[in-house]
Amino acid sequence: MARQSLWASEQGIKEAKKAFSRMGWTQQQLAEEVNCKSRQPIWKFFKGKPIERHIFTEICFQLDLNWEEIAAPEPSDLNRNHSTNIDTLVQEIRDKVRPSIQQKCGTMRVLDMTQPISLTDIYTNVNILEQIAGRRRLTIAQLLQVFDPESQNFDRFGLSRITKERVPGLKAVESYPKLMVLGKPGSGKTTFLKYLAIQCCLSNFFKNLVPIFITLREFAEAKNQLNYPEFIADILSHCGVTATQIFELLKQGKTLILLDGLDEVRDEDANRVIKQTQEFSDLYYNNHFVITCRIAAREYTFEKFTEVEVADFNQQQIKAFATKWFQIKENLSSTFAAVEEASERITADRFMEQLQSNPSIRELATNPLLLTLLCLEFEDAGDFPCDRAELYKRGIATLLRKWDAKRGIVRDRVYQKLSVQRKKDLLSQIALNTFERKDYFFKQQIAEAYIADFIRNLPDAQGDTESLHLDSEAVLKSLEAQHGILVERARGIYSFSHLTFHEYFTARKIATSSDPPALEKSLQNLVCHITDKYWREVFLLAAGMLQPADYLLQLMKKQVDRLVAADQKLQEFLIWVREKSLSVAVPYKPAAVRAFYFNLAYDRHPQMNPIDYRDPELIRALDPSLFILVILGNIRALDVGLDDLLALTCDRSRNLDLAHYPYPFKGAFFLACDRALSLEPKLGEALQELKNLLPNPDADLWIFKQWWEVNSQAWIEQLKAVIVKHRNICHDWQFSKQQKRLLHDYYNANKLLVECLNSDCYVSRKVRQEIEDTLLLPIADGQTIR
User: Fold this and answer.
1) For the ranges 37-51, 81-95, 318-332, 728-742, which has the lowest average pLDDT?
2) Which residues belong to any copy of the NACHT domain (predicted)?
3) 505 and 496 in contact (C-beta within 8 Å)?
4) Long-range contacts: 326-332, Cβ < 8 Å, 24+?
5) Among 498, 544, 635, 710, which one is most buried in terms of CB atoms within 10 A?
6) Percent residues over pLDDT 70 in the chain
7) Half-sphere exposure (CA, 13 Å, Cβ side) for 229?
8) 13 and 47 both lie in a single domain
9) Angle in degrees, CA 204, 205, 210, rounded to 5
10) Cα dist from 523 to 381, 446, 528, 585, whole Å
11) 538/583 same-domain check
12) pTM of this prediction?
């Protein structure tokens, strides 16, 4: 059936306009010739819009044209034929560009990698945040609900979870035909775009589209400032693709346009590139577009684009990446390396184990670029460097300079006086000021005030307030966009990208002062925080930065001793710890034995368990061999093991649950009796007498329970009296709550001091020995360092 309406094809319009021009008519005159009451049908005809069939044919007759040649084809025929043709063209072009896409996007090589690796082998699925984190209207109090270093169950990994629900990256691209993918430096934006190009080429994703990958920096700097269609034609010409074919694909919406790195475009090219991108995406609106850009890098408005953010890696993504990384490394190993014993191979499991045991390092792994750095560091020695300050320094150098330099990117320096060294100094100043105030999140105006205070002292700095304000705002945005070390967590609220970096720069500010009096004051201020758990990493990092760390460690030892110096009862407790440790003959470091008895008394005391004896970290730090015996239970073969068994018996007798079989109590007590008979016969005899008073629970549990309910209190007091008399343990110290808290702080402060001693810090042998010899001793014994 013939169509009721006809309209001119593009070519038909051109022919009609030529004929119209030859006639020399106006549109009103042509309307009169075809008996139209107005010029409206004539206007529609030349615009290619549908008009009534008889008017269309009459216009063509008056212009001396064959209407069948001017009219657009029947839709059914056009769609059927064109659909077949365009699908064939898509497949043809995909085949032609596949080698080019594979060459440009198929591998990755970053940082100090010695050779490129296949992108598909290492790629880890990206997750997307549909709400940009820095644009949420949240308060600092709301952010602290998720991430508060002072909370009891603080998780450093929580900073990467201050987000809403994530969606897979591929799903986001499928859902939004025009997508702006934002992300922090090193978050994997380019890798994601390259992966899209590869998967599209392999027909695994958008199999009906042709992927076109464009590095925007190359587009911006191309000779003759080509527009997008011309640039695409130019880069694909070597693939045998013609400009006509490209225009046809664009016109039919058959391309996946991947525009990488808007932030990498130079300032002088930025406005032109943004305008061309907007016009290009508007003109060819039925194509799929994905653009990547660093957060806060550009002021732009792409009205038709949906903005999303690349999410930090979660634990599953970190593990997936590490597994692929070390599998690739194993596959690339030489023949010699391939026959190594399995125990000597560096595996992802070992990497993950070490990562789990180092929360500060694990936090960095949420950034794919820093995760790559960690994998490179780990594969060299099968462990992370002992000098964590140096590791963090390399991570920061990667973000401040190395990442861009490796890719040949020179960014516009917003404030010319800020060299890399001065940026570190600025970040250190911000870090210390905010860390001391416990401001893990801080408002934009606070950050800008710190920046203004810093840059006003630089040569040629603007002196007026308005200029300083503008400069400080620009510097803040630059630190976020170019380096990603400061991050906008919510609208107008900033933090360091990782708590690890906040701690590192705080320690750097304290430890790198070139003025001796200022350094001394900084270290004295630092040791005032020795009982604040959230300062732990700062102490460790500062100790590693100082050359030597003698003075800091001596200050720490003095501060530790001051914690309990004024309390007579706590001094008596430490005197007992010293005397008890000297009364046993064991081949371990005296400080480790003192730590053993400190824990033994403190942990066994009723309602005193802030320190977990089953995880004696201080013992391990002081003497690993004693720690291993404690953990394995082999300590019971030694003199101190008898004290352990007796304390365990006393503890279990107080907490005996008669609702269950009393085996734990019986086992500890009977074993203590046997050990006492061989080590100290008089004690063994006394314990045997107490043992004889107990009904045998194996013979009749009900009789034992009845007896215990009536006689347990008196029996326990007799047990304690025997143990105190013969072994001088299980004293009832009756500490107050304040004293318990002081002992808790004292123990943890000693543990931190020993951690610093055992870290990769440089400390003289004399000071090291002096500190270790006086650990956990009363003041009178420790006066040598006071």
Assistant:
1) 81-95
2) 177-294
3) yes
4) 326/351, 326/375, 326/379, 328/117, 328/118, 328/121, 328/122, 329/379, 332/115, 332/117
5) 498
6) 85
7) 16
8) yes
9) 110
10) 33, 25, 9, 39
11) no
12) 0.79
DSSP-derived secondary structure letter, 8: B
Contacts of 467 (CB under 8 A, 6+ apart): none
- Which tens digits make up the pLDDT trace of 370-395? 999 999 888 877 888 888 888 899 88
Say if residue 293 is in the same domain as residue 426: no
- 3-class secondary-structure state, position 659: coil
Q: Are residues 645 and 730 in the same domain?
A: yes
Name the helix (H) or strand (E) containing 178.
strand 178-183
* Same domain? 263 vs 196: yes
User: Do both 542 and 576 map to the same domain?
Assistant: no
Q: Which of 431, 448, 450, 452 is nearest to 440 (CA)?
A: 431
Would you say residue 27 lies in a domain? yes
Residues 6+ apart with CB under 8 A from 614: none
Residue with tokens 């269309």: 56
Residue 356 lies in a domain: no
Mean pLDDT lowest for which of 446-450, 549-553, 695-699?
695-699
Return the amino acid letter for 597. Answer: Y
Average pLDDT score over residue span 133-158 = 75
Task: Report the share of the chain in percent with pLDDT over 90.
Answer: 44
Contact 536, 753 (CB under 8 A): no
The answer on pLDDT for 195 being more than 90 is yes
Within-domain flag for 528: yes
Quote the tokens at residue 406.
Answer: 């490796």
Mean of the per-residue pLDDT values of the chain: 84
Domain membership flag for residue 152: no
Please provide the DSSP assignment of 286-332 as one string: TSEEEEEEETTS-----TTPEEEEEPPP-HHHHHHHHHHHHHHHHHT
Query: Among residues 685, 751, 720, which one has the least CA distance to residue 601?
Result: 720
Using alpha carbons only, how large is the chain's radius of gyration in Å? 38
String of DSSP letters for 705-760: HHHHHHHHHHHHHHHHHHHHHHH---------HHHHHHHHHHHHHHHHHHHHHHSS
The count of structural domains within the chain is: 4
- Look up the CATH number of the domain holding residue 49: 1.10.260.40
600 shares a domain with 505 = no
Last residue of a domain, one of 277, 295, 310: 310
Gap between the Cα atoms of 38 and 27, Å rounded: 9
Contacts of 625 (CB under 8 A, 6+ apart): 588
In the block, which residue shows the tokens 């043709």?
85
Residues 428 and 554 in one domain: yes
Residue 764 domain boundaries: 564-779
Q: Are 668 and 645 in contact (CB under 8 A)?
A: yes
* Both structure tokens of 396: 């920061």
The CA-atom distances, in angstroms, between 184 and each of 189, 222, 257, 600 are: 9, 27, 22, 49
Q: What distance in Å separates the CA atoms of residue 740 and residue 728, rounded to the nearest whole number?
A: 21
pLDDT digits (tens, 9 = 90+) for 723-763: 888 888 888 888 999 999 999 999 999 999 999 999 989 99
- Residue spans of beta strands (DSSP E) within 475-611: 486-490, 493-496
Of 560, 576, 611, the last residue of a domain is 560
760 within 8 A of 541, measured Cβ to Cβ: no
